What we know:
Blueprint: H1 2-35, H2 38-44, E1 46-48, H3 56-63, E2 69-71, H4 79-92, E3 100-103, H5 116-120, H6 125-141, E4 146-147, H7 171-186, E5 199-203, H8 222-229, H9 231-238, E6 243-246, E7 250-251, E8 254-255, H10 260-270, E9 276-279, H11 296-306, E10 311-312, H12 316-326, H13 332-348, H14 368-381, E11 383-387, E12 398-401, H15 408-412, H16 427-435, E13 439-442, H17 456-465, E14 468-474, H18 495-504, E15 509-514, H19 522-527, E16 530-533, H20 541-549, E17 625-632, E18 636-638, E19 642-651, E20 657-667, E21 678-687, E22 692-700, E23 706-707, E24 713-714, E25 718-725, E26 731-739
Parallel strand pairs: 1-2, 1-10, 2-3, 3-4, 5-6, 6-9, 12-13, 12-14, 14-15, 15-16, 18-26
Antiparallel strand pairs: 7-8, 11-16, 17-19, 19-22, 20-21, 20-25, 23-24, 25-26
Bound molecules: beta-D-glucopyranose.
Beta-D-glucopyranose (BGC) binds next to loops.
Amino acid sequence: MKKTKHQALCMLLLLGSLLQAEVTIEDKVSDLLDKMTLQEKIGQMIQRMPASGMNSEFIDLIKSGSVGSLLNAGTNNQWQLRNQFQHIAVEQSRLGIPLIYGRDVIHGYQTILPIPLGLSCTWNAELIEKGARMAAIEAAADGIHWTFAPMIDITRDPRWGRIAETCGEDPYLTSILGAAMVRGFQGEILTAADALVACAKHYVGYGAAEGGRDYNTTWIPERQLRDVFLPSFHAAVMAGVGTFMSAFNDINGVPASGNEFTLSQILRGEWKFDGFVVSDWASMHQMINHGFCQDEKEVAFKSVTAGVNMEMVGNAYERHLEQLIAEGKISEKLVDARVADILRIKYRKGLFDRPYNDGRGRDAILSSSHLQIAHQAAVQSAVLLKNDGILPLKKCRIALIGPLADSPFDQMGCWSGDGAVSAVVTPKAAFGERLGANLYYASGIKKSRDIGREGFAEALQAAAKADVIVLVLGEEQSLSGEAHSRAFINLPGAQNELAAALVETGKPMVVVIMAGRPLTFQNISEHADAVLYYFHPGTMGGPALADIIFGDVSPCGRLTVSFPRTVGQIPIYYAHKNTGRPPVPQSLGIPMGTPVDPREDTSKYMDVDYTPEYPFGYGLTYSSFVYENLRLSAPAMKIDGELIVTAEITNTGQFPATEVAQLYIRDLFGSVTRPVKELKGFQRINLNPGEKKRVTFVLKAHDLGFHGLDHHYVVEPGAFHVWIGWNAEQGLQGEFTVVE
Ligand code: BGC
């Protein structure tokens, strides 16, 4: 009894002190707000990009308190320039409110990790958190406070150039990996000098752009919004993300930067987010183009009322908020609330106590431990799609050919503006180190888009001298990323022709594809002895590739997006609905382009299989695994209970390898139709040859729900299937029921 009392007292004290800490920041925020003029408040809501270094006009703006944040502000290594701006804000503006510097630190800073889509193929949240930590340490040492990452948009469209920046098609996986990035960027203590404030973007639905064309319209019914597009953003809030970015797209007729439903009702109302929202680049002003606002004044009105705190690149807040208040269209209280969110994050980041960068921590940039993280991430991001047994290669004479075999800039992938090109190690450099005179290199084609065949002869000569061809194809950097959508997702330029010419030599051929998206390359994979999908692997892509090709490690990446056979299948994703006339396996194998008897009237294509070329979750290793003995702890679970699902996995091959065991469920009948499969868990396990391990998943009934007819989350009693599998199409199946 005594002990309980004591515990209660301690709890109270703890709670008291926690509350006090929070109250302190809130007190500081409201004290500061009390001192601010309306112009100074509006100044906090403006993010500007200094056109070029220091100029007197810009200095005056900072002095007058008309700048809350700077975007980019110098290139890398310009931490001193950032300090100069900060000195003006802190020492020469009336209230000395520090600036917050934002920048796109997406997949690394100077040390570049694989593009996020590649990173997600590691299915390794711990490693991804480490990678984000690494990026934060490097960027913070350069005077950056805030990164516009993670990008946690869900997309099911490889035409969309920004698929490169996503974690793929699945809301569950993106939630876990996105939260890991938030933790990595923000570190354990946000006030630490090496922590960056993270930004969950692009809120929301941006990845659903019609036709995969960037910035295009999105139509997302509320149920789908809540089941598919919102969970990763909610997970970011739960992980403590400091900021959000409102997207470019129009969602169901209301652009994201003027969307009261998503920005206020859901984000602040339902999720209790108390950080701030920055608009995406000029996305507020673009509401005029959308036809949602008549002029800039209406832009300011709709954005501020919907819930955007800070305008990135634009003048709507600067020019119109004051007048909107004067006209009684909005209250100063509303502006106070928007500014309070910004100040709260500035306090939480510790900018008032430590506004300047002292240049320390810069040794970490491109340090060997950072390069090692990039190396590990590149290894784990590689997905082996095909292997007739040629890999791993024994030491032999190799012809390394292709436009991506020695292209440091392209290898870094999109959004790597701060990346150190000189630090990139390409396959050519890495293979050269291992093979010396046994390496014969020829690009064949200089850039992925080139259509000339001038380089073919040299490539064929290299091939003639070698025992094996390693052909590194793909997309150059500029074919993916923002505003870089493609209507065709084949290998561009003369790459198919180059591959065909090399196939003619009859030499064994390993194809490596470095790209920003899933591509279609059936014709090549049919003839290649092995295909490794590498996305853009970053700084250490070369050495990591050598490790895999020569068998130092077994590849362990698994796809996080379904690969279509042809662009006409898009959107194609594993968690689709069943339809009333589901396709049947007999509809498989209809040869491309030769319509045959349609057999059944099912939901299929007449000219191509309805299935993906490679399913979500797919990836081979140098070993083989056998799954057996799926067990469920009970045939039923209570609606508030849980179930334990296990299976044994044995490494039946010759190599130590990592398996990614995946847990899927299907809710067989619902008050609304449910997907044929949904990922609910995964585990990476390392197994030596002959080793067997039991994987255990705890399935909580609460996680089996969805948003029902009334858009509220519901778990319905009834029958479920469950799988522990090795991709979204294959696994051991069991069943259970959920009971009231
Ligand atoms: C992109 C954002 C990015 C911002 C700042 C925009 O064009 O959509 O993702 O953070 O620019 O660079």
